[in-house]
Amino acid sequence: MTRGKQKIEAQKKNSEKNQKAKGSQLEARAVGLKVVCPICKVQLANQKQLVDHYGSKHPKENPPGNSE
């Protein structure tokens, strides 16, 4: 077990390490979501998910072509 100055330095080091590891999940999610449904504006990760979305949420509409 450490005492005094070693303990304080160890606590600082651990707190800095933990702060760098944390990040916003919303930011990471926004990077991954690239396809947007033009009807309801929901964001999806890829074209296949957009086709599946159209099949379940907009069955009377045809999905847009692959614009990537």
User: Taking all residues together, what is the mean pLDDT?
Assistant: 84
Largest sheet: 2 strands, antiparallel
Beta content comes to: 5-15%
Q: Order of strands in the sheet with the most strands?
A: 1-2
* Structural class estimated from helices and strands: mainly alpha
The helical percent reads 40-55%
The residue ranges in which pLDDT falls below 50 over 5 or more consecutive positions are: none
The rounded Rg comes to 23 Å
**H-E order:** HHEEH
Number of domains: 1
**Helix run count:** 3
Total strand segments = 2
The termini sit apart by 57 Å
Principal-axis shape equals rod-shaped
Q: How would you characterize the overall build of this protein?
A:
There is one protein chain. The chain is built from three helices and two strands, in the order H-H-E-E-H. By secondary structure, the chain is mainly α. A two-stranded antiparallel sheet has the order 1-2. This is C2H2-type domain-containing protein. It comes from Genlisea aurea. It is found in: Cytoplasm; Nucleus.
